[in-house]
Design brief:
Blueprint: H1 2-6, H2 10-18, H3 22-44, H4 47-63, H5 74-101, H6 113-131, H7 135-146, H8 151-158, H9 162-187
Helix pairs in contact: 2-3, 3-4, 3-5, 4-5, 5-7, 6-9, 7-9, 8-9
């Protein structure tokens, strides 16, 4: 039975997948897993993390099968999915590294423990607010504010217009301002 699925086109497999066909999903997995894994390894240089990225894409593909909208090819859709997951993973690496690099050394701390705790609480709240931004909005914000990329570079990297980058940044800043304002009001 599975051999029959090898002869189906990506479009046919996608249609079967939308109807919950597990064999179609298995064929898509077998057809694309190695390519996606190779692409992820090329960018991440960590086979275990690359494997996790690809697995998460396939899990999400199955979970969202009934809402699946592929405008071009299945291969293109999966490649873009890998690209966005890699960007997210690299952003998380950068945030973690930046956080660790910016932790004060104990010798640099003064007697103001409460100020440090308050600062950490605000920093933690900001990290939560950033993580709760919509995915593309968060990616654009992190690339701009934490990686220091220009709007033009972000637009080129994500293959979107500079106006879209500007809109995402504006939305992120507005959301973060609102979230921090309510946070500070609860401290008073």
């Amino acid at each position: 039975m599975m051999d029959a699925y090898c002869s189906y086109s990506d479009q046919e497999l996608t249609a079967f997948l939308k109807n919950g066909d597990k064999s179609a999903f298995t064929e898509i997995y077998n057809r694309y897993w190695k390519k996606m894994f190779a692409l992820a390894c090329q960018k991440i240089n960590d086979p275990e993390e690359a494997r996790e990225i690809v697995q998460q894409i396939f899990i999400r593909l199955w979970e969202r099968k009934d809402k699946l909208e592929i405008n071009n090819t299945l291969g293109g859709y999966l490649s873009v999915s890998v690209k966005y997951r890699i960007i997210n993973a690299l952003n998380m690496h950068y945030v973690r590294k930046n956080y660790i690099d910016n932790l004060p050394a104990w010798s640099e701390l003064d007697d103001s423990t409460q100020e440090w705790l308050d600062f950490e609480e605000v920093k933690e709240r900001l990290a939560i607010l950033v993580s709760n931004l919509p995915e593309k909005c968060r990616i654009v914000f992190v690339m701009s504010r934490e990686q220091g990329l220009s709007q033009k570079k972000i637009a080129e990297t994500l293959n979107i217009s500079e106006k879209t980058v500007e809109a995402h940044l504006s939305k992120a800043v507005k959301s973060l301002r609102t979230g921090l304002r309510s946070f500070f009001l609860t401290l008073l």
